[in-house]
Amino acid sequence: MQVKDTVVLVTGGASGIGAAMAEEFHASGASVVVVADRDEVRAERVAASIGGEAITLDVTDEAATAAAIRHIEERYGRIDILCCNAGIATAGSVDAPNDDWQRTWDVNVMAHVYATRHALPGMLQRGSGYIVATASAAGLLTNIGAAPYSVTKHAAVALAEWLAVTYGDRGIGVSCLCPQFVDTPMLDAFAGRTDAMKAWVRGLAITPSEVAAMVVTAIEDETFLILPHPEVATYFRNKANDYDRWIAGMRRLQESLRDQGGSGAM
Ligand SMILES: NC(=O)c1ccc[n+]([C@@H]2O[C@H](COP(=O)([O-])OP(=O)(O)OC[C@H]3O[C@@H](n4cnc5c(N)ncnc54)[C@H](O)[C@@H]3O)[C@@H](O)[C@H]2O)c1
Q1: What Cα–Cα distance (Å) separates residue 82 from each residue in 109, 133, 210, 232?
Q2: Which of 145, 157, 178, 257 is within CB 3.0–4.6 Å of 265 for a Cys-Cys bond?
Q3: What is the band of 266 on the pLDDT scale with cuts at 50, 70, 90?
Q4: Which alpha helices (DSSP H) does 10-106 contain, by range?
Q5: pLDDT at position 196, please?
Q6: In this predicted structure, what is the pLDDT of residue 193?
Q7: Of 114, 149, 167, 235, which one is the catalytic site residue?
Q8: 114 annotated active-site
Q9: How far apart are CA 149 and CA 151, in angstroms?
Q10: How many angstroms separate the alpha carbon of residue 245 from the centre of ligand 1?
């Protein structure tokens, strides 16, 4: 799929990776980029800067998501590219409160189900469409210190994979974005408590615009897995090759991060 002349919807487009994607789609010639976010002011700001449209949307509200998709289809004729990008980072173990688990599940997984459920019929009817799911390296590996985040991001990868298998022969492309650290407001949630941890995380972080450029390339090449940090491919291969060895390595990493006073969450 070529991005030029497409109608694009980016959820979580008011900040970080979503805002950079919206800007990159615009720069790549998309005919309109709709920025949907629960943060009305920032969504308006991003949309205004690229001549797009802002929609205030809580992605966990299925009826509101359906209405936003209907509005875009009626106003612009179709949705070519749907980016399910809004996400939240929730730390904690199995004893994180149920409300935290549920909220993380709703934003990081069910919102992808809802948006896809309502955007797919139009795409299938036209025999053409593209879905980008923002998961995380935590969805392929794990996020030390953040069970709700790791588990829901694994589910987001699983959903994207399932969609690619199920609809790939019907004109629907799917990519799954799995970055490690990216320099956005969310990075603070991963950065731990000490200066040493913060510096370590910041040192590994790449910019949202670098990620956004890779997303556009992946759409045009129709590549499923987008790994802005190439080392994640190696870790993922190591995990598949020898699961027990990989778990032992992650325990050692956890120990060393604990020594530095951080969660090492990613
Ligand atoms: N920053 C990183 O290091 C990193 C790494 C891997 C994956 N990710 C993923 O990238 C995506 C974007 O995160 P980011 O780093 O740009 O963070 P961010 O906090 O800058 O942006 C997230 C955006 O999502 C919006 N959002 C959150 N909940 C929402 C809801 N219920 N309804 C509508 N909008 C909602 C926020 O308002 C915000 O604008 C997330 O899915 C995140 O999990 C981020």
Answers
A1: 15, 8, 19, 25
A2: 145
A3: very low
A4: 16-27, 40-49, 62-76, 98-105
A5: 76
A6: 66
A7: 149
A8: no
A9: 6
A10: 31
**75 phi and psi, to 5 degrees?**
-80, -40
Task: Give the Cα separation of 50 and 27 in Å (integer).
Answer: 8
* C-alpha atoms less than 13 angstroms from C-alpha of 117 in its C-beta half-sphere: 14
What per-residue confidence (pLDDT) applies to 265?
46
Which residues contact residue 253 at a Cβ distance below 8 angstroms, ignoring those fewer than 6 apart? 144, 264
Report the residue count for the chain. Answer: 266
**Pocket, ligand 1, Cβ cutoff 6 A:** 12, 14-18, 37-39, 57-60, 85-89, 107, 134, 136, 179, 181-182, 184-187, 190
Of residues 116, 31, 114, 121, the one with CA closest to residue 82? 116
Nearest to 173 by CA among 137, 138, 128, 136: 128
pLDDT band at 198 (very low <50, low <70, confident <90, very high): confident
Phi, psi (degrees; rounded to nearest 5) at 45: -65, -45
Question: Is residue 163 within 8 Å of residue 170, measured between CB atoms?
Answer: no
Give tens-digit pLDDT for 92-127: 999 999 999 999 999 999 999 999 999 999 999 999
| 37 alpha carbon – ligand 1 mean position (Å) | 10
For residue 105, the SS3 value is helix
Token code pair at residue 212: 């956004």
Q: What is the pLDDT of residues 222-238, one digit of tens each?
A: 999 999 999 999 999 99
